[in-house]
Amino acid sequence: MIHITQSAAVLAGAALALLVIGGVWALFAGLRARADATSIAEANARLAALVSGSPAQAMLVRADGRLELSRRLGDWLGFQDLPRELDELTGAGTGLLPEDADALGAHVAAAQKAGKPFSLSVRALGSERALLVIGERAPQTVNAPGGVVLWFLDATESQDEINRLQREATRLRAAFDALTALIEAAPMPMWYRGGDLRLLMVNSAYVEAVEGKDSEDVVERGLELIEGVGLGGPLANAAIARDTGEPQTAAMPATIGGKRRMLRLHDMPLPTGGVAGFAVDIEELEQARGGLKRFAAAQRAMLDRISAGVAQFGADRSLIFSNQPFRRMFAIRNEWLADRPEFDRVLDRMREANRLPEVRDYPAWRAERAHWFVSPDAVEETWSLGATHMRVVAQPLPEGGLLLLFEDQTQQFELQREHGEMQQVRTATLESLAEAVAVFGKGRLQLWNRKFRQVWGFEDSFLDSHPQVPQLVRAFGPKLVKASRGEIIGDLIRIAAQERQSRGSSIAFADGRHFDVTAVPLPDGNALVTMLDTTDHHRAERALSARNEALEAADRVKTSFLANMSYELRTPLTSIKGFAEMLNGGFAGPLSESGQEYSDAILISVDRLGTMIDEVLDLTQSEGSPLEKAPVDIEHAAQNAAEAIAPLAKAKHIELVVENAGSAGSITGDARRVRQVIEHLLRHAVSQTPEQGRVLLHLDGNSRVARVIVSDNGPGMTPEQVATAFDRFAQFGNARGSQRSLGLGLPLAKQFVEAHRGRIELISEPGEGTLVTVELPRR
């Protein structure tokens, strides 16, 4: 048995413990190292994946020229076997272009020596791929002292776009130069404005038009082609184009070379915010257009007077003109033509009116006629419309329209047959006329009817000899009141037959008959004489003349009676007023309260009756009396009239307002009559306005007239009352069935206004009050 001492046991235990602890620590360190290795492997895998999928691939060039690159980069450069040296980047149909490889080698050498970064575009042999190389000195972490890292980026699309943009820029530059030369050589003024509408560029034509030194001088001085900068000026047109983003066109006058010209300005907005413009001289165009319009108007006026129907269609095949015979032939109303119907619709309308030939296939027939618009030559057809035969000519117009001519030839086919019938109809018509009719030709009586023979009482044998006009005139004389009047009939026949003019006169027969004689020229060179019996007319005229004289005499008697009665009524009325004032003043002793009221009522009635008498006198005396001619202050006359009516308005608690605009001024006339006009209007307004109402007197005027307006807020007037408001003694019924009068104020006002050659107007509606306007001329 081995005996181990205590100290040895302790040392052995300690050694064993150390071994256990060391084993545990070694196990832990191994596990941790394995975990770190796994993490590093995963990170390397991720980085490798990112690098392989990156748009940029790296190439490491070491100091001795050895290369390190990925398989993907080798594919970009077209290598099946990856190159090992920098010199192997080109050759045998693979790698870079020789010139690109040489350039890359030079840049790499510079980067190795001086650490200068660079970028270079290269291409691979036999490939359209463009690569961008970015090179810089390799970082220390790469562990490649003196090496260079080259990053290859696939820039094929970017390079293509750059090349395209370069070509486009070259093309645009050439186009800009050509456009600039064209603008400079243009015969019309052209310009360019900035966003603030100031001129930035003008061409030579603009400089010449504004008489500037050169374009810099014109731009510096801001010389405008069109005078003025108002709402209708060139800047306004350019501002609208700039703000709306739409081209603007305006015709404006300008003075160029000392001559007035009409220019059409075109302002075109640009994406830069500026505005480009040019001006076209349209002076000759406007004159030519005006001439064309006048020619077209004259042509249409001429077409409207011919007997043939004419219809003109525009380039859009809409009806733009038709004369009256066309509308009459095809029963087309003017209202329907206002919408400018198309060619097919016009044919449909004509068919509805049975004015087209009967055809089996109407749509096909209509389509064939539509080809008239594009026909190289005029087309002529004949349409049979029952008993009517129509000649149709279709003429295409140079501007793309169509002119149609419709000539009714039916009359030509039936002319001879109708001629005989017309002779018979004419004879029968002349015989059946109630008027005396005779036709003269070649200085003789050719035709006559039974009435003509009866009026003159001639024998058939005398008329059948077709007497000459002088012989016939001698036979007229004994049958007339004045034998010399027979010569007048001969003169009428001569003027109608030779001078082709219509004339008329009247003759009186010895037996009391009266006739109006008229001679008119006929198309065949003859003269037609008609005699209309006006005996009853002359009798009625004499009766009416006698009755009118009697009415005028009665009116004079009435006027004289009214004037005399007015004067006669003044004397007792003055006495009544005097005694009533004495009673009211207490000269006969104090009056009771009722007596005082009665005396006040008497005085009011006396004043009213006095006013009515004055109005009657004015109405009867002012008709023939002349007006005074002196300056009349309208404002002063209106103030006096308002002061005279103020007590009446106050008694009814009516607000009387005078509104003066300060422009009424003065007129030349009769001051008293002018004041009476305003006073009558105010009195009428106050009398027609209920208590607590309002009456307005307004004064204004202009350089031509002075105006007075009187309005109230009374009950107004019915249309019947308005229609007769200015009639003398007009009566109006009220709701109770009684009659009342508006008085003579309005008739007098109208009479005085018209005497001043003025105008008076009344406007009123029930419940809306009344407004009377008076305009008095300055002279």
What labels would you give this structure?
single chain; 779 residues; alpha+beta; Beta-Lactamase; 6 domains; 5-stranded antiparallel beta sheet; 24 helices; 47% helix; elongated; coiled coil; histidine kinase
Q: Can you offer a commentary on this structure?
A:
By secondary structure, the chain is an alpha+beta fold. The chain has 6 domains: 50-154, Beta-Lactamase (2-Layer Sandwich); 186-281, PAS domain (Beta-Lactamase, 2-Layer Sandwich), CATH 3.30.450.20; 287-413, Beta-Lactamase (2-Layer Sandwich); 426-533, Beta-Lactamase; 551-621, Helix Hairpins (Orthogonal Bundle); 626-777, 2-Layer Sandwich (Heat Shock Protein 90). It contains 24 helices and 31 strands. The strands form 8 sheets. The chain has a 5-stranded antiparallel beta sheet, sandwiched between helices. The chain has a 5-stranded antiparallel beta sheet with strand order 9-8-12-11-10. A hairpin with a 5-residue loop joins strand 16 and strand 17. Helix 21 runs parallel beside helix 22. It is elongated. Mean pLDDT is 80; it is low at 732-741.
- Please give the CATH class of the largest domain: Alpha Beta
Q: What structural category characterises the helix and strand content?
A: alpha+beta
CATH H-tier superfamily of the largest domain: Histidine kinase-like ATPase, C-terminal domain
Helix content: 40-55%
Strand order of the largest sheet: 2-1-7-6-5
* Residue windows where pLDDT falls under 50 for at least 5 positions: 732-741
Number of strands: 31
Strand composition percent: 15-25%
* Average pLDDT reading: 80
SSE topology sketch:
Elements: H1 6-53, E1 56-61, E2 67-69, H2 71-76, E3 90-91, E4 94-95, H3 98-114, E5 118-123, E6 130-137, E7 148-154, H4 156-185, E8 190-193, E9 199-202, H5 204-209, H6 215-221, H7 234-244, E10 248-256, E11 259-269, E12 275-281, H8 283-303, E13 309-313, E14 319-322, H9 324-329, H10 334-337, H11 343-352, H12 362-370, E15 379-385, E16 388-396, E17 402-408, H13 410-413, H14 415-432, E18 436-441, E19 444-448, H15 450-456, H16 460-464, H17 469-476, H18 485-498, E20 503-508, E21 514-521, E22 527-533, H19 535-585, H20 593-621, E23 630-633, H21 634-651, E24 655-660, E25 666-669, H22 671-688, E26 694-701, E27 705-712, H23 719-723, E28 731-733, E29 739-741, H24 745-755, E30 759-764, E31 770-777
Helix pairs in contact: 17-18, 19-20, 21-22, 22-24
